[in-house]
Structures are given as structure tokens and as C-alpha cells.
Amino acid sequence: MRVQVVRPDALGREEIAVWRELRAGSGASASPFMEPEFTLAVGRVRPTARVAVVRQDGEPAGFFPYERGPLGRGRAIGFGVSDCQGAILRPGLPLTSRELLRACALSAWEYDNLEAGQTLFQPSAAAEFGSPVIDVRAGYAAYEAGLRGRSPKFLKTTLAKERRLGRRVGEVRFVFDEPDPAALRTLMEWKSAQYRRTGRRDRFAKEWISTLVQRLHETRGGGCRGLLSVLYVAGRPVAAHFGLRSATVLSCWFPAYDPEFARYSPGLILHLRMAESAAAEGIGVLDLGRGAAEYKDALKTRELRVYEGASTRPGAGAVVHWLHREPVRRAHHYVRGRPRLSGFAQRTLNRVGALRGARRC
Questions:
Q1: What's the pTM?
Q2: Which residue range or ranges hold the BioF2-like acetyltransferase domain (predicted)?
């Protein structure tokens, strides 16, 4: 067995085909983030992107996508925007995490959404989280019936707001797969404003993220492609979502709406219509992603498990990584686990956002 490290664009057709076969036979959820297309897309905008190709008896037997930083500190491919991470390996491959990191010249590999079942890395996890999902494999009617039983007031109120929006403003129209790049630009503007308003880092201020999203929106076919869904009222977009889809999973990524229409909860209406259209398209699961939110609690049918942490091998690089990341991670985890502190932190972020907005004016 040997490991060869290459740039994503150096992967050949045979290797990509084996990657897909390994992933399809793994029994794991068909997350688009774990498909080769996502790694290839990140490789076009991130020069530090690499793939370790594991060969056994000369044949491809595994793939480990990652990004390499200074001092051999590695991160999951697309770290910061990737919602499912890990290696794609043939079952029973005699390989340890330390051996793989050594072959990649990595002192540490950091992840924040490690997929459950990643036995190579899961023992190193420092925290476990739920990632809520909407399961529509039995069809949208069955999902809505379940939602009516779990959250009758939520469903009734949301559907009433949709009807009210149509009466007071104009015709409500939903497009599941909107190819118009202007609609994507509108969504990105809304999302950037939301980040600033809530005191959070604007992801779209990073050129590589905005370029990645735009290119994935243009992608058609394959196991991972962008999907832009838009809710229009009287011909005007009022809510939108950009995510990634595979054949059976839609990973929800960037939802946003026009604050002018907030009273109608257009984001909730959008998610219900997305679930309905996804079921009609044969998509069985909408992964809402890690992170607490009231709308996720209302919409979800169950949760997947994801993990945060870092796999390391002995050496100075691992110590540097620990000193740089672990205190911050532990502080975040401490605050998240205490509702009063978490609420105070959120209010502080909101005040920071308001100050930023005032300065921009």
C-alpha cells in the first residue's frame, strides 16, 4: 500500500470513478460535499487543496481530500463552508490516521463537520453535534402530515402567512432550480447584510467562497451541483436558498430573505416548498446543517451526528495547532452549552452588527 498526494485536478477518470463507487457502496448518506465534484471545485479556487490517493496492490483504494497550511497544519477540504467531511476509503483498508497524516506531511488535520462512521478520525473528536434533517423519502404529503402532528401551530401559521402574502402583495411563485445568476447575486447580497446585521463574519467577503458558490451554481450533472431555489412574489424575489445536491440529498447551505417581508416568514415558506419539490425530484433528505435555530427544530424529522476536533500525530506541529485552536474551540463549546451565556453572546453580536450598520450609513 502506498499514498500519493496530488492536486485535485490531477485526478484521472479512473480515480474519480473509483471514488464514486467507494462512496456509493459505503452505506453513508450521499452528501454532495463528499463527492469528487466538490473537491474538484474547491481545488479550482484554493491552491492549497490536495487529495491523498491511497493505492493497494497498485489500484486506487481510498481518497483523502484536505487543505494544507503552514507548518503542516491541515484542514478539511473547503473548511468553513463544508458541512460533511472525511476520507473515502475501501472497507478494511489497513491504514491508521497517523500513517495517513505522515504520508500527507501533516502534523494535524482539523475538521468541524466530520461524518459519523469515519472510524479513522472519529476517536480524535472533541465534540459531537446534531445536524437536523428533513426526511421526505415517504413523500411530501407524509412529511406534512407528520409536521402537522408534531408542530400543528407552526404549519398552520406558515401556510396562513403564505396565503396572506399572495392576497396582499401578489402572486406567490416558487422556482426550485433557478439558473438566473442575478437571483444568486441577490441572495448573496441578502446573506452578506444578514452576516453584518448579526455581527458575524461575512463569508461572501472572501473571494474564494463567493467564486466557489458562483461556479457551483453554473455546474450541471455529476454527484454534486449547485441548486438555487427562489420564492417570488409579484415577480420579485423575497426569499432564496443556495445549496448543493446529489442524487438523493440536498445540503442546505445559504438561506436568506428580504427583511422587508419578514412579517410573512418567507424563509419558512421557502423551506416547505423546497421540501415539496425535493420529494418530487427523488431527493429523500434535506440536510439543514449543524447549528441551533428555531426553524430547524420546527422543520426537522431527525438528526445526523457530526463531529468537531483534530487528528494529530506527535511533533511540534501538533503542539502549535493545539495552542492555536484548542483554547478557542473550548471557549466556544463552553458558551454554546450554557443558554444564558449563549444568549448574551448573541445579543453582543447583534449590537456589533448594529454598530457596523451605523458606520456604513
A1: 0.87
A2: 156-296
Of the listed ranges 48-62, 285-299, 336-350, the one predicted with least confidence = 336-350
Compute the Cα dihedral for 161, 302, 24, 53 and give only its sign: positive
Among 270, 275, 280, which residue's Cα sits nearest to residue 232?
270
Cβ atoms of residues 76 and 110 within 8 Å: yes
Choosing among 3.40.50.720, 3.40.640.10, 3.40.630.30, 3.40.630.10, the CATH entry for 2-130+307-315 is: 3.40.630.30
Query: The domain 132-304 is classified under which CATH number: 3.30.470.10, 3.40.50.1980, 3.30.70.20, 3.40.630.30?
Result: 3.40.630.30
User: How many percent of the chain have pLDDT more than 90?
Assistant: 80
3-class state of residue 320 by DSSP = helix
Q: Are 315 and 174 in contact (CB under 8 A)?
A: no
> 290 with 300: CB under 8 angstroms?
no
In this structure, what is the dihedral angle of CA atoms 228, 140, 296, 160, given to the nearest 10 degrees? Answer: 90
